[in-house]
Amino acid sequence: MSLEDRAKATAKNIEGKAQEALGNVTGDPEDKTEGKAKQAESEVRQGLEDVKDSVKRKID
Question: Which residues contact 27 (CB under 8 A, 6 or more apart)?
Fold first, then answer.
């Protein structure tokens, strides 16, 4: 597990939430969609880190 990778995933999630909120305020569907996509990407990255952690624990 890389703390840096987890931090990047968390930052991407926050960025996505902010962009989605901006899209909600401005009524811009493109911002809302991009924000949701960034949040989904963050979830995938977090899941990948969880898998890496699990494999590392089993190896150790």
Answer: none
